Amino acid sequence: MSGLQKAKSEETRRRVLEAAVAAVEAGGMEAVNIRNIAKEAGYSVGSVYKHFADQDALLIAVNSVTLGRIREIMGEVVEGTQDPLAQLRALAHAYLAFAQENKNLWTTLFGHHLPDGKPVPEWHIQENIALLAFIAGPLKALNPGLAGEALEDRTRTCFSAVHGLVTISLETRFISLTGARLKGEMDYLVERLAG
User: Fold this and answer.
1) CA atoms within 13 A on the CB side of 6
2) Domain limits, the chain
3) Quick one: CATH architecture of 1-52?
4) Model's pTM, two decimal places?
5) How many CB atoms lie within 10 A of CB 69?
6) What is the CATH number of domain 63-194?
7) Is the pLDDT of residue 4 over 90?
8) What region holds the HTH tetR-type domain (predicted)?
9) Local structure of residue 150 (DSSP, 8 states)
């Protein structure tokens, strides 16, 4: 493929993905329809399929964009902060804020499931794991004895607990908290989990 063809191909992929991200932001996962995405991006349906095998592949790519945005925010909130507990608190609050401000992207990230027997691409698994590293570092600093599987388990437990609190708050269940009460309990949860 010549340089010009490669550049055109990358531009097509970028525009299709941008249209899919915009569709999710506006209408959630259900808004991703290959025909509509092709129209919004200004390409044929065949052009979309040239870059994304199916709707699942397109949604995984959208979720990759979402993970990238979360990773960027997490990097920003811990930059210059040396205290590991303050880092964990900042990460939890940044995660909550992202979910509140980007509900459709966040819901799609956790709501999209591949059909049985269709494996999640390894690169996408690694993108998810990269986010957990933001939690593992401060946890290790607070608990120097944690290592290997024990650190991995504690990291996943901490993420799951914070994720659960965020999920319930976004679903506005009768047990959910909001505003300052939610933020205060988020700090309480992080402090207890941090050891």
Assistant:
1) 3
2) 1-52, 63-194
3) Orthogonal Bundle (1.10)
4) 0.92
5) 15
6) 1.10.357.10
7) no
8) 10-70
9) H
